[in-house]
Amino acid sequence: GSSASDHVTNVGTLNLTGVETGATVEYSTDGGHTWNTSFSAVEGLNDVQVRQTDIAGNTSSATSFSFTLDTSATAPGVALTTDSGSSASDHVTNVGTLNLTGVETGATVEYSIDGGHTWNTSFSAVEGLNDVQVRQTDIAGNTSDPTSFSFTLDTFAAAPGVALTTDSGSSASDHVTNVGTLNLSGVETGATVEYSTDGGHTWSTSFSATEGLNDVQIRQTDIAGNTSSATSFSFTLDTSATAPGVALTTDSGSSASDHVTNVGTLNLTGVETGATVEYSTDGGHTWNTSFSAVEGLNDVQVRQTDIAGNTSSATSFSFTLDTSAAAPGVALTVDSGSSASDHITNVGTLNLSGVETGAVVEYSTDGGHTWSTSFNATEGLNDVQVRQIDIAGNTSNPTSFSFTLDTSAAAPGVALTTDSGSSASDHVTNVGTLNLTGIET
């Protein structure tokens, strides 16, 4: 054993000295009551008395001797000092020290990490799997059977990787999405994941994204009880897009609210930054990112798809594009007199045709320099231009028209063609024809 003088041994035989030749040696294990010529040590404490009777018949006094016979050492019990983490019995821990039981007082404990080939009196766990054997050698020199023990030392948890399950919309990397679930990577098997939305003050094992900006921190606590540093992640959850407002850029003409215009462009409001605007002119069957108005009635639907991929409901809008006005037809209301087409009349009003509903008619009598919404013919030659401005604000080309207003005829002068005879002024003649003057052409 560890000491040559502690009277603890794994060999239970005695070495006697001073025994005379031929003497008989006797042993007593009951305090001298009974004696035997042989002695067999028993496991544990042995109190023995030894005496000799020499050949002359003299019996010596007894020599008392005590020792402990210890012929075996039990294998020590081995466990983790702390089986940390989610389970107290899974042999996964962040504390790499062992708790030994059944080690005898004074025994030497040895450890082997190579299957028993080499042994050391100290043990330092390594990160990861540890296969260790533990034995003791007691003070009697007995070496126990080894106890095998396996455990995993895990002293660190990595911060998890965090991404969006789906970064929807126009960009797959802008962190704007209509799907508010997270994809975690690097989470250890059996680890507990926790989320914080208040900068790490409180933590929860579940996370529900809210509409708008989400600032979330994620950490994991592995089965060894190690809590990782937190991974911060920000994203915007956008699950809807509002229908855009639609109006005419310019509602031209006589009314600013009749949806009749000569400018076919639209003014959109409420379009989100980065959104894609689409137009449909067939009731929503097909959609295009551009729109060109056509002459006449336009029924258009407008929608937007925001950067998160949400498509709004469609806004319907109708308007009439009118980009031109025809020159009006101009004639006399009555072309009186001997000819119905000579533009000479005693009625100075005009008959206009082709004037659009709601249009404003204008007249010019100075070659187009000035215009008026009324016209009064003057006696004699009238050179007039007539144009219309429709409700869309289009001004037609002018129509030129000339006519003569003649509202009276002078009495003709009458004389004899020939006032024959002795007097040329006596109105007595032999020629009965008259000479008329002042007759209009």
UniProtKB/TrEMBL annotation:
It holds the Pfam family Big_13. It comes from the Bacteria. Residues 78-155, 162-239, 246-323, 330-407 form the Bacterial Ig-like domain. This is Ig-like domain repeat protein.
